[in-house]
């Protein structure tokens, strides 16, 4: 098949939910991908922060294939040593008490919302079930996580939405306080709004939210679906802010390219779910957990994290000398670029034509390179970006 044939079949057989770039990728290694026509690309996306270790990393492939050859699935009605091993590692690395595995970011957030509401129901009874989220946030595409998402563009078509959310302005503590009431059970935040345009919360604001939560037994819930798994130069972005949330959600980078999400909780929530109150057929699947265990074993060492920070700084520094760059917002290898010409979408499309995979978020260019990208791959990608930015 050539690209035109792939495109025609896509048009005929897939629902039209994406505006796609003109590339049909068929294989990859590290931060290099190859398309159906044999053309090569440098990857600054890791599939939206998913392929933490790049394409087809040797250790990751070994972990996944060995697990596939051993036992690929069992129901959650049985004890799964590989799932338990991944949970133990995750709790140890995150300083949380318990994990629940699911299959995506939206599902992890659904779990977080259920957990917060049940905690409050068990302790305070009915009516204390609302959650404050932030304007410009993104929490997923299920009906409830769309409701949680603080952007009006997502609150269309699919009525009725869930009413249990209130939206406060990011970095405006007075607005958060104005929404705090006896009905609130949780405050749910992204520390750096990813889809919202790589917008970091101010440490002061986060600290004040922590204070409100502690004072009123409101749960602090942090969506680390994009920022977690060493993306920002610490294993969790929470560490950059020095906070210990009650609930943390993870997904994207956790499985290194196999679908898996996780909802983590502190000790005070560890017995909130009881048999029958939550569950999933696929969640905690052995292959997904073997993949996650391999990722977790690799990305959290101080040596690895310091490399992520160094590479992130290296990229940001080089970018700052490029034409058409107005502002760079970066934490580790989560990097947003505001362009002078406000032409991120065009730049991204041209980059793909020239052999570089790159993301946008709102009107920004966004880079989420695989954490294992080499300096050689970085330089090659940046060279393409620079020439496109100069056009
Ligand atoms: C991507 C993302 C989600 C949704 O994850 P899915 O796996 O697509 O359901 C939720 N929250 C944040 C912060 C994300 O970046």
Walk me through the structure:
With 391 residues, the chain is an alpha/beta fold. It folds into two domains: 3-57 and 301-389, Alpha-Beta Complex (Aspartate Aminotransferase, domain 1); 60-299, 3-Layer(aba) Sandwich (Aspartate Aminotransferase, domain 2). The chain is 39% helix and 19% strand. It contains 13 helices and 17 strands. The chain has helices at residues 3-13, 46-49, 58-70, 81-94, 105-124, 143-148, 173-179, 203-216, 237-241, 286-299, 302-319, 344-353, 375-389, and strands spanning 25-29, 32-35, 40-43, 98-102, 130-134, 165-168, 184-189, 192-193, 199-200, 219-223, 247-250, 261-265, 325-331, 334-339, 356-357, 359-361, 364-367. Strands 4-12-11-10-7-5-6 form a seven-stranded mixed sheet, sandwiched between helices. Strands 1-2-3-15 form a four-stranded mixed sheet. The mean pLDDT is 98. Pyridoxal-5'-phosphate binds next to helix 5.
- Characterize the main sheet: 7 strands, mixed
Give the helix/strand class.
alpha/beta
Q: Quick one: overall form?
A: globular
CATH domain fold name of the largest domain: Aspartate Aminotransferase, domain 2
Helical segment tally?
13
Cα-based radius of gyration, to the nearest Å: 21 Å
> In the CATH hierarchy, what is the superfamily of the largest domain?
Type I PLP-dependent aspartate aminotransferase-like (Major domain)
Helix content: 25-40%
Percent of residues in β-strands: 15-25%
| Count of β-strands | 17
- CATH class term of the largest domain: Alpha Beta
Query: Which ligands does the model contain, each kind named once?
Result: pyridoxal-5'-phosphate
H and E order: HEEEHHHEHEHEHEEEHEHEEHHEEHEEEH
Low-confidence stretches: none
- So, CATH architecture of the largest domain? 3-Layer(aba) Sandwich
**What integer is the average pLDDT?**
98
**End-to-end CA span:** 33 Å
Domain tally:
2
